[in-house]
Amino acid sequence: MQINSFEAYQQAYKHSVENPEEFWAGIADNFLWKKKWDKVLSWNFSEPNVKWFEGAKLNITENCLDRHLAEHGDTPAIIWEPNDPEKDPITLTYKILHVQVCRFANVLKKNGVKKGDRICIYMPMVPELAVAVLACARIGAVHSVIFGGFSAQSIADRINDAKCKLVITADGSFRGNKQIQLKEVIDDALIGCPTVEKVIVLTNTRTPVSMIKGRDIWWEDEVKLVDANCPAEEMDAEDMLFILYTSGSTGKPKGVVHTVGGYMVYAGYTFTNVFNYQPDEVFFCTADIGWITGHSYIVYGPLSQGATTLMFEGIPTYPDASRMWQIVEKHKVNILYTAPTAIRSLMSFGTEPIQGHDLSSLRVLGSVGEPINEEAWHWYNEEIGKDNCPIVDTWWQTENGGIMISPIAFVTPTKPSYATLPLPGIQPVLVDEAGNEIEGNGVSGNLCIKFPWPGILRTTYGDHERCKLTYFSTYKDMYFTGDGCMRDQDGYYKITGRVDDVINVSGHRIGTAEVENAINMHSGVVESAVVGFPHDVKGQGIYAFVIFGNSQHDEDLNKRDILQTVTRVIGAIAKPDKILFVSGLPKTRSGKIMRRILRKIAEGETSNLGDTSTLLDPAVVEEIVEGAAKLR
Ligand code: 6R9
Question: Could you report the predicted ipTM of this complex, rounded to two decimals?
């Protein structure tokens, strides 16, 4: 199923459009099924209702583990690099990982977990996180992994939305020279989570934790009580595999639902093709498993292909900015997949941290999470790839399950800051505001996809209407991505960024409404408006315009209080970079905040604010412009 020439790509693409069912059946044949499908695809985008490989039976962990045992049992499945470079790395071969997953799956069973139950996982980037994820999949439980940077309140919201029965966590996590008390955060969260019956706690940092009788149990104790034989649950292709929460333009994060069969096929297919993975190579994706990139390209994609996946507990700048290059050298990494924000951050340290590190094992470089600017692209290409490694700039989303628009390494000619061409099976269209398809090249518009692919989300958990409204209602019979896009003269795609009220901070999606709600919870705040602004390292930063009730307030102190409130309500990742206190917000006569104007002010482009005549009170704009100039 690996594409090895541009002609082969074109052929595959043509096949996938002309006969999608035959095309994807051919791809799916490369996986292990307990029973093959009755029908490859049935779909409509109006409800929406999408089903892939209906009638097929499988277990994704048999594809990720069992099927590799006979010939590749001793191949490293996971290489784990700890936060502390002095500590020894850990290698789990496929055989060992299989045993650990089966054992922990039995722990879950012993604690009452059944097929279809939702399990919340809030863990550090340790091998047991991958074990926990796969153990859920082994017995057909649905995992909902929550990134370690979210607050107790955010965790509680997610646990309650999915009605999770059990939580898997650790005492704490190491991040650079910091320790985060994960169990403490979970304890706070669980005060408001009546559905949770058990908490399994892994010892990691050995910090003191409060273990509640009857509810909290230790990972280490539990695994001793079970055996390592756990037959894989037989799953329907359309059974739920996981829920992953993501931010949109309105309200609370929604639980994106992926199902077993289609997701597996799509993650595996895109992994092997985009990165041109070769047997025995080491693949290093720097994402956290708390995000979709970690799900698809640390766990399921690589393991389904029998690959060796490197998992890193720490951060790229600890103990210093040479850490990534040390890891590449130490583990002879062949494929490195990271985010533009990491590249820009490392770039700011110059080339000194790279010197003396042997990066010659690198063959392919990948980028994901946000648009990569040309400067970062060239630095990545020259300083890291030594002008000798293709860069795959991979565009995709949580809702997509896997990479959608991207070069295929050694196949697609690359172009700085372009995601280039759609993968086989992906039919992108650009549409104008009225929903008309914009044909031809050298055009820009909103990016939609007009035909399903196996990794497409099936619903948003517990609220199908929301899925329909968010993705399938803006434009008739199309999946709307929320991204703006340009198609150049060669038909190459360049993603230009979100066109909705989502800010992309260091590759993390944050909804402006969510941040506003958090800020508004502070007792002194009357109203607020949040927009994104260009940030040198993060891509986008968060700019908050805040009306405070008492004009005599201590601005510094109140800013800190607001930051603390946001950290409590959402988590540190949503803290505004800038807070400007204002006496009013630019509103239309109907009371809508004109974000367009605030965005321009945040960008520093105040010379051309456009038409302000429809504003209720044009004078506030002058005040905000003046205040923003001082804040810069
Ligand atoms: C995989 C992931 C999705 C949003 C997406 C877009 C942005 C991701 C990109 C990119 C330009 C790329 N995005 N990859 N923009 N070029 N190569 O990041 O999923 O967290 O759901 O974010 O990220 O705006 O809509 P997710």
Answer: 0.99
Same domain, 507 and 460: no
What pLDDT digit, counting tens, does each position of 63-105 carry? 999 999 999 999 999 999 999 999 999 999 999 999 999 999 9
Q: With a threshold of 0.90, does the pTM exceed it? A: yes
User: Domain span at residue 613?
Assistant: 503-631
Edge-to-edge strand ranges of the sheet holding 335-338: 90-93, 76-81, 308-312, 282-285, 335-338, 364-368, 391-394
Same domain flag for 81 and 165: yes
CA of 138 to the centre of ligand 1 (A): 29
Nearest protein CA to atom 17 of ligand 1, as residue = 395
Q: How would you classify the pairing of strands 76-81 and 308-312?
A: parallel
Do residues 98 and 188 both lie within one domain? yes
State the CATH number of the domain containing residue 399: 3.40.50.12780
CB neighbour class for 250 (10 Å; exposed up to 12, middle 13-18, buried from 19): middle
Compute the distance from residue 588 Cα to the ligand 1 centre, in Å: 32
The per-residue pLDDT for range 33-67, each reduced to its tens digit, is 999 999 999 999 999 999 999 999 999 999 999 99
Q: Token pair 């025995």 is at which residue?
A: 280
Split into its structural domains, the chain has a count of: 2
Report how far residue 103's alpha carbon sits from residue 61's, in angstroms, rounded to the nearest whole number: 13
CA-proximal residue: ligand 1, atom 3 (nearest): 397
DSSP 411-474: TSPP-TT--BSBPTT--EEEE-TT--B--SSSEEEEEEE-S--TTS--EETT-HHHHHHHHSSS
Same domain, 525 and 590: yes
Q: Are 95 and 233 found together in one domain?
A: yes
319 phi/psi in degrees, rounded to 5: -70, -20
- Confirm if 403 and 394 have CB atoms less than 8 A apart: yes
Under DSSP, is residue 248 helix (H, G, I), strand (E, B) or coil?
coil
Q: Which atom of ligand 1 is nearest to the CA of 399?
A: 21
Nearest CA to ligand 1 atom 7: 370
Span from the CA of 220 to the centroid of ligand 1 (angstroms): 37
